[in-house]
Amino acid sequence: MLVTLKALGCRLNEAELESWSNDFQSLGYSITNKTEIADIVVVNTCAVTQEAVKKSRQLIRKSHRINPKAKLIVSGCYSSLNPEITNEIETIDLVVANKNKDKLAQIVNDEINLEAMPSIATEPGESALFARGRNRAFIKVQDGCRYRCTFCIVTIARGDERSKAVSDIVNEINTLHQQGIQEAILTGVHIGGYGSDIESNLYTLIKTILAETDIPRLRLGSVEPWDLGENFFELFANPRFMPHLHLPLQSGSDSVLRRMARRCKTDDFSRLLIKACSSIADFNVTTDIIVGFPGESDEEWEENLTFVESCKFSHIHIFPYSPRQGTRAASMPDQLDLITKKTRTRQLHQLANEMRIEILKKYVGRDFPVLFENHIKQTEDGRQSYFAYTPNYLKVKYVWNEELSLKNQIHHVKLSGYDEQASHMLATSFA
Ligand code: SF4
């Protein structure tokens, strides 16, 4: 029996795919990334924006079109917030609500009637990640969030904070490392809140992982810029803890941040960055910004641009605000028109691009150990192009003159430049 798993949206959705892959394998299924030959297709949906909802619906329909014979299973925030989805899209065979996600593989196994069910349960040998064409592992360490940012539908869809036990996370990373995985990325809805329900915290978790595993590279997924603890930055003294953080700012205007009910104002954010940059070599920061939050005035937008520029982000995930039903922001007065949001989005893209070029320029001529991913192109003479990532999460395109595969290996390379769109660094030789 073959299972294909697909995710939209956040890294948490991606992390869930990874644990489902292992669960399905333990039940005797095999994982494929080819929808057309799968017996079961699982789609993990997202509802963070209207666009994500649209894409979720498209992905469900497309999966059925590609393989109408496969059983279609849907889970994730969109389907959890819209349980009537099965009436709208009749080709769905089963919806698994977010609260039952941890048992998804077992539920599918129990409820979906396939002619020949797998008979021999196996322990996964090779990592299911490789079967899905991935080589970095997203590890879900917690779910849910205690806060109520006024724009956030995820906190509603995902419920209260629940943390995975430290020992389970350590075991999971050790197993993945034994299977050949070189990099683990800790993810959750609010990972700064890790341990609030089990008398632990993020600092202890990271310290324990670094002490009790040999995974060469450990990094954090998106982490809110608060709840990090006084001693948090000491962790980066260990070179296996990667010097990059994705800290969602959401706006560079304090009055907008207040309306968003964010717990980190611009001063706090600046202090955090100063601390990080002064204690971590080559520290790299990326962020999320919401454009056109209700009531965002011209002055607030200017404040936002000025503050964002001062932060020197290497990448900004830009979200034009879209009201999500059930959130407080959706019923706030002074919703902005589409044209204003589009104009501001363009402005911010331009600023983000200028900042990225400045940062990439700084790294030309330096060398870093990079983790190679799948090759992206192979020419007739055997040359291959790879994408790889530096420890501080700069994307690097590497052209390799040999036929030997570099996939999933770590090598030092010399950064020789960056591409015209400044989307990644370039390298052509080992350092
Ligand atoms: S802290 Fe993050 S997950 Fe929690 S409500 Fe705010 S945006 Fe949503």
Spatial separation of the terminal alpha carbons: 45 Å
Integer-rounded radius of gyration: 22 Å
Structural class: alpha/beta
CATH hierarchy, class of the largest domain? Alpha Beta
The total beta strand count reads 18
Instruction: Indicate the mean pLDDT.
Output: 90
Small molecules bound? iron/sulfur cluster
Quick recap:
The chain is an alpha/beta fold. 33% of the residues lie in helices and 23% in strands. It has 4 domains: 2-111, Rossmann fold (3-Layer(aba) Sandwich); 133-242, 2-Layer Sandwich (Transcription Regulator spoIIAA), CATH 3.30.750; 245-250 and 276-361, Transcription Regulator spoIIAA; 367-430, OB fold (Dihydrolipoamide Acetyltransferase, E2P), CATH 2.40.50.
Spell out the key features of this protein.
Transcription Regulator spoIIAA; 4 domains; 5-stranded parallel beta sheet; 5-stranded mixed β-barrel; 33% helix; globular; binds iron/sulfur cluster
Topology:
Layout lengths: L1 E6 L3 H16 L3 E2 L8 E6 L4 H17 L4 E6 H5 L3 H4 L5 E3 L7 H8 L16 H4 L4 E5 L1 E2 L10 H5 L3 E2 L2 H13 L4 E5 L14 H11 L4 E4 L23 E3 L7 H7 L5 H14 L4 E8 L6 H14 L3 E6 L17 H26 L3 E12 L5 E6 L5 E6 L9 E9 L6 E6 L1
Parallel strand pairs: 1-2, 1-3, 3-4, 4-5, 6-9, 9-10, 11-12, 12-13, 16-18
Antiparallel strand pairs: 7-8, 14-15, 14-17, 15-16, 17-18
Helix pairs in contact: 1-5, 8-9
The site of iron/sulfur cluster has 10 residues, from α7.
Written overview of the protein:
β3 (40-45), α2 and β4 (71-76) form a beta-alpha-beta unit. α1 packs across α5 and α8 (166-178) packs parallel to α9. It is globular, with a radius of gyration of 22 Å. The strands form 5 sheets. Strands 2-1-3-4-5 form a 5-stranded parallel sheet, with helices on both faces. A 5-stranded mixed beta barrel has the order 14-15-16-18-17. 33% of the residues lie in helices and 23% in strands. It folds into 4 domains: 2-111, Rossmann fold, CATH 3.40.50; 133-242, Transcription Regulator spoIIAA (2-Layer Sandwich), CATH 3.30.750; 245-250 and 276-361, Transcription Regulator spoIIAA; 367-430, OB fold (Dihydrolipoamide Acetyltransferase, E2P). The chain has helices spanning 11-26, 50-66, 77-81, 85-88, 104-111, 128-131, 154-158, 166-178, 202-212, 254-260, 266-279, 298-311, 338-363, and strands at 2-7, 30-31, 40-45, 71-76, 94-96, 136-140, 142-143, 162-163, 183-187, 217-220, 244-246, 284-291, 315-320, 367-378, 384-389, 395-400, 410-418, 425-430. With 431 residues, the chain is α/β, with parallel strands linked by helices. The protein has 13 helices and 18 strands. The structure holds iron/sulfur cluster. Iron/sulfur cluster is lined by residues 145, 147-149, 152, 154-155, 189-190, 224.
